[in-house]
Amino acid sequence: MTRASVVGADMTTFGVHERTLTELFATAALGAYDDAGVGPDDIDALYFGNAMGGQTENDTHLAPAVAAQIGLAGIPCQRFEDACATSSNAFKNAVEAVEAGVHDTVLVGGVERCTPETGLGTGEMTRIFASASDRYYEQPTGLTFPGVFALHTKRHMHEYGTTEEQLAHVAVKNHANGTRNPNAHFGKEITVEDVLDSPVVADPFRLMDCCPFSDGASAVVVTSDENADSFDNPVDVGGVGHATDIVPLSAKPVVQATQAARDAASQAYEQAETSADEMDFAEVHDCFTGAEVMASEAIGFFEDGEGGPAAAEGRTAIDGDRPINPSGGLKAKGHPIGATGTGQIVELTEHLRNNAGERQIDGAERAVAHNLGGDAATTVVTVMEARE
Amino acid sequence: MSLSHAEWVDALRDGDLLGVRCPDCGTVYGTPFAVCNECGSRDVEMTELPTAGEVYTETTVEVSPVGFDAPYQVGIVQLDGARVTGRLTGEVGIGDRVVLDGVLEANDEVAPVFTAE
């Protein structure tokens, strides 16, 4: 079943950008217009994501500001914030609006700057990122975001015997994929030894287990199933699942299960009348290597406890039997928070159009995107399909 | 509210750990909730948690936010049916027994500190 279709998609490179938030978003948005062959007059609403502009750049009420840059003044524009799942939630709401007939064609996207271009150093940015952990029952301990996912991952290692070397293989694979992605923040091959020799950030995570601070923007044009036929290259959205887990982390019954991802994936597969087995690849939220291992199990690509061995055996490589993060993932492509969710939609769209260049998953017809926010308490999972 | 954040903090400073218990389904939480997330009951009651338990998961933070000096260990401690996040001392790992041993005052907030039993 098709809920809506993506008919235009573009992103900036993820990396370091001097351009302002509105300039960055405009770059991706105009690219998405051009890809779809539309202009501002064809867009009925803007669903926009930015997570931290208020904290990082004293920049809020951004939806009208970015809209004005790209000719959308006058139409309804709204901003979403759900930590790292910000723009996938904007995407979910856009799909629902189009499906319900509220709007015909909408622009969806996100932007963020997280590098020292914001004027903020690592300690200050680490504090801002930690604002997505519980204000009263986690932040006072000095818990960081690498720390949050370290708590998940150490329990996963305890339960299943997942090893630091298996985690390192996730980083090695994603960096290799990043070399094939011209939009990636990092384009350099690394080895397992490089990862295991890098300094510890929050054990078991070393520097090279962690995604970078990135700047960037992404945008897609979403239209209804009926309208999509009049565009050159539509890709269908079969399902978008969205679930919320309890916070803080200490209240989650099984921390390493990332239950919201399991619930969101079930919803997305059910809406699309498909299953994990039918997916040709996945883009998952690998903010840390352990997060990819847990995500690969939560979306049903592997049994619980098999995610680590699968990564070490090369099963998740582009030429493996269950490819994950051909883009390089957050780890190598980069993670400009508010741009990450729709960045995954851009990646799925390119593969399902058979247009992903050196990293193309051969013959890809169906794929799944997994984007989480905070301690994985927000997760949005999207299933997309090539249009017949 | 059966337990406020202020009450949780005051108790912690006195050496007590408070949580909430749902009388309808029996779920116990280590932090306040107005409504039980398991069964939806609004009758959750304040309950005193044991101050000794077992490390459920832990990490040592080596890169800290501003206002904290790394390295330090943070973990989640299982206290019978509830869990609480706090600082850990004494080089403990998952499964090790720990006991509440004071509080960390940081940026006008407070966190429990557990040490090896």
Topology diagram in text:
The complex is a heterodimer of chains A (388) and B (117).
Chain A: E1 4-11, H1 21-36, E2 45-49, H2 53-57, H3 62-69, E3 77-80, H4 86-99, E4 105-113, H5 122-130, H6 145-160, H7 164-178, H8 192-197, E5 200-202, E6 205-206, E7 215-223, H9 225-228, E8 235-244, H10 259-271, E9 281-283, H11 289-298, H12 307-312, H13 329-333, H14 337-352, E10 366-373, E11 378-386
Parallel strand pairs in A: 2-3, 2-4, 9-10
Antiparallel strand pairs in A: 1-7, 1-8, 4-7, 5-6, 8-11, 10-11
Helix pairs in contact in A: 1-3, 4-14, 7-11
Chain B: H1 5-13, E1 17-21, E2 28-29, E3 45-49, E4 52-61, E5 72-79, E6 82-89, E7 97-106, E8 109-116
Parallel strand pairs in B: 6-8
Antiparallel strand pairs in B: 1-2, 1-3, 4-5, 4-7, 5-6, 7-8
Protein architecture, described:
The complex is a heterodimer of chains A (388) and B (117). By secondary structure, chain A is α/β, with parallel strands linked by helices. Helix content of chain A is 37%, strand content 18%. Chain A contains 14 helices and eleven strands. In chain A, strand 5 and strand 6 (205-206) form a beta hairpin. In chain A, helix 4 (86-99) crosses helix 14 and helix 7 packs across helix 11 (289-298). The radius of gyration of chain A is 19 Å and the shape is globular. Chain B is mainly beta. Chain B has one helix and eight strands, in the order αββββββββ. In chain B, the strands form two sheets. In chain B, strands 4-5-6-8-7 form a five-stranded mixed barrel. In chain B, strands 2-1-3 form a three-stranded antiparallel β-sheet. The interface between A and B is large, with 36 and 39 residues.
